[in-house]
Amino acid sequence: MNSLEQALDFARQAHGSQQRKFTGEPYIEHPKRVAGLVQTVAHTEAMLCAAYLHDVVEDTPVSHQDIEQRFGREVAHLVHELTDEYMKEAYPRLNRKIRKQKEVARQAGISPQAKTIKLADVIDNTRDIIKNDKDFAVKYIPEMEALLEALQGGDFKLLMLACYEVQKAKLELQQWRKSGKGA
Questions:
Q1: Residue 147 belongs to a domain with what CATH number?
Q2: CA–CA separation, 72 and 74 (whole Å)
Q3: Is residue 21 part of a domain?
Q4: 3-state percent breakdown (helix, strand, coil) of the chain, nearest 5
Q5: What is the pLDDT of residues 74-95, one digit of tens each?
Q6: Which residues are known catalytic residues?
Q7: Where is 146: in which H helix or E strand?
Q8: Domain enclosing residue 69, as ranges
Q9: Rounded to the nearest 10 degrees, how much is the dihedral formed by the CA atoms of 35, 140, 136, 8?
């Protein structure tokens, strides 16, 4: 089994029976789509491994040390850069807006490779959230607009696609509100 297959298998096992919030699909489908987007632009094997593993530390008991032991320092570093340091569990006294602002500031300084993976993550999440939970999208889309500024320096094609998806979602929300369905 090559390292990409190992990363996918490890992520599948780590996420186990987790499901996507809005669709109920197996969680592993999200990292697979993120890796698929990264594969469409200049990438390395380490970037693809990290794309598969990008939510493992954040959403499962797996540690950064586990990732480094299994996949090496480069993949572990990318996963570390992609792991939200300002999660609610770590900073329960900070409200969401402040946590997200701090995370955006942190992500402005991550590597171009990690920014590229994060852009793919934004694209997939935006598509999923606008389709399945417009109420949450009202909070999420402005956060992504701010994050896209910080992710400049990642792959330009994915940056443009992420900007497009976020703007498209923003327009869809405006239409949804005008229709009287959104508060």
A1: 1.10.3210.10
A2: 6
A3: yes
A4: 70, 0, 30
A5: 999 999 999 998 886 777 788 8
A6: 58-59
A7: helix 134-150
A8: 3-178
A9: 10
Q: How far apart are CA 180 and CA 177, in angstroms?
A: 5
The DSSP secondary-structure symbol of 19 reads B
Q: Provide the residue-wise pLDDT of the chain in tens; the chain has 183 residues.
A: 799 999 999 999 999 999 998 788 999 999 999 999 999 999 999 999 999 999 999 999 999 999 999 999 999 999 999 999 888 677 778 888 899 999 999 999 999 999 999 999 999 999 999 999 999 999 999 999 999 999 999 999 999 999 999 999 999 999 999 987 765
Q: Please report whether residue 183 resides in a domain.
A: no
Q: Identify the helix (H) or strand (E) that includes residue 78.
A: helix 73-82
- The residue type found at 64 is H
Using CA atoms, how far apart are residues 164 and 122, in angstroms rounded to an integer? 11
- Amino acid identity of residue 7, one-letter, is A
Residue 137 lies in a domain: yes
Helices marked H in 23-133: 29-38, 45-53, 56-59, 64-71, 73-82, 96-107, 112-132
pLDDT, one tens digit per residue, over 2-27 is 999 999 999 999 999 999 987 889 99
